Every structure is written in C-alpha cells, then in structure tokens.
Amino acid sequence: MNSSAPKSRWMSRTAVNGFLVLAVVYMLFPLVWLVTAATKDTGDLLAGNAFSFDGFNLGENLSNLASYGDGIYFRWYLNSLFYAGGGAVVCSLICVAAGYAFDKYEFRGKEKLFGLVLMGVLVPTTALALPMYLLASKTGLVNTYWSVLIPVLVNPFGVYLARVFSTGYIPNEALEAARIDGAGELRVFWSIGLRMVMPGFVTVFLFQFTAIWNNFFLPLVMLSDRKLFPLSLGLYSWNTNTHGEPSFYPLVVTGSLLAVIPLIVAFVSLQRHWKAGLTAGSVK
C-alpha cells in the first residue's frame, strides 16, 4: 500500500500536467499562427506556408497596413482604445460604486433590486442590440461614438462581482472610523472604499475592456461611417473583401496581430493589483 501511494500520486500529477500542457498548446496555437502568418505576403499565405519564417515580409505588411485607405486602420485602432479604455474605466467605477452601495447600505427593496440586476446577467447582449438601436435612433445617437459608448457603461455582472469584492475587502470598521472623523459618504467611498476594493475594480475593468475590445455586433448595428468603426468591425469589413481581392489577406492577418497587443499589455500590467490585493480588507 505504501509503495503504491507515491506511484499513484506521480500518475495523477503527470495526468494533470499533461492536460495543462495540452491546454496551453491549444490556447497558444492560434497566436503562434498569427505571429508567423503576419510575416507572409499574399502568395505564401494562400500557399499554406504560414508556419515558417521564410520570406519574412512583416515590414512591408506593416507599411501597407499604415498606408491603406489613408491610414484608416490606425483610426480604427484609436476608436477601439477610446471605446474599450474609456468605457471600461467608467463602467468599472459605476459597477464598484453600485456594488459598494448594495453591500454597505441598507435601503428598502435592496435585495429585490439586486435580484433585478442579476436578471440582467441572464439577458444576452445580442438580444438588446435592436432595442438599443431603436432608442439611439429616437435620440439621434445612431452612427455616433455615443451609440457604442453609452451601452457598454452598464454591466450587471460587474455590479455582482463588485458587491462580492466589497464584502470581502472593505471592513465596516474602517468606514465607521472615517465617518467618526467627519468624512462624508462620498469621501468615505472615494478615499477608503475604492482604494480597498481596487483589485475588484481592476477585475471588472479587465472583463469589460476585453468585452468592449472584442465587441462586434453592437458597432455593426449602430455604425455605418467607416471612420467610427472599431477594429473588430473594420477588420471584418476587410475580410469580406478577401475573396475578391486576395491582397487583403496580409492586411487582415497583420491587423489582427496588432489588435491583440492591447489585451496582452492590459493583463500583464494590471495583474500585480490582483496579487497585491489578495489579503486586502482582512480584519483580525
């Protein structure tokens, strides 16, 4: 029995590690293909030689990407940064404030209202696209930046997540001490509550930033002016032309590679807030 236990643990560990290796390969395979394919010209891509660095053509691809359509690609890039960056910051602040209020305050119908918020999590965003378009049409916001930015400022799941973080990270004693010192409720939230729940703010921000950056259906419904397109919609419009004009293939692939960079930078640069806040808010 004693000799079989180490062997059993070794087999279990090997199985788990093998599964993790397969999962990593599965997730990195598309990114590796994207990196190598971005170095190919149209002929190499159509010939299926994407996984080699022969015929390195990345510089010319980047040059063509920057010059095509008077640099429309980087206009889309700035639009995506505006939609995703600005929308995620404001949405995260709203979610954290709402989660903080649901956790720390008592008011009539609080749990019923929170139940309505949770019901919003069950509604798919695609089902709301048409009603939002009709509302934007009535208010004259269709085909403007606001038609994409305003709907992404609300995230029911972010409110739920923020309430969970507020419960675990913000001790009531710290808030009471600030109130005794004469701080108002807004000052208490801004100076104490928000700082303590910063890991939750970063978590909601990353979720929302990724969702807005990859958002496709809402801009497709709301926008017709190419200058307002985000990257997802702009690259899609190029991809629809690849069958008639194969020269669009390198533009789409190289543009897709550059589109991944902000997501990687956001996750790498903000992960330290999670690690720093793992024990934040603990009360002994």
The SSE order reads HHHHHHHHHHHHHH
Helix content: over 70%
Q: What's the story with the biggest beta sheet?
A: none
Distance between the termini: 43 Å
Question: Which residue ranges are poorly predicted, with pLDDT under 50 across at least 5 consecutive positions?
Answer: 277-284
How many helices? The count is 14
Average pLDDT reading: 87
The geometry reads as: globular
Q: What portion of residues belong to β-strands?
A: under 5%
DSSP, total strands: 0
Report the C-alpha radius of gyration, rounded.
Answer: 24 Å
Secondary structural class: mainly alpha
Domain ABC transmembrane type-1: 77-269
Subcellular location: Cell membrane
Keywords: Cell membrane, Membrane, Transmembrane, Transmembrane helix, Transport
Family: Belongs to the binding-protein-dependent transport system permease family.
Describe the fold and architecture.
This protein has 284 residues and is mainly alpha-helical. 74% of the residues lie in helices and 0% in strands. The protein has 14 helices and no strands. The protein has helices at 4-37, 42-47, 58-67, 72-104, 110-122, 125-139, 145-149, 156-169, 172-180, 185-196, 198-213, 217-222, 231-239, 248-276. Helix 1 (4-37) crosses helix 14. The longest helix has 34 residues, at 4-37. The two termini are 43 Å apart. Mean pLDDT is 87; it is low at 277-284.
Quick overview of this protein structure:
This protein has 284 residues and is mainly α. It has helices at 4-37, 42-47, 58-67, 72-104, 110-122, 125-139, 145-149, 156-169, 172-180, 185-196, 198-213, 217-222, 231-239, 248-276.
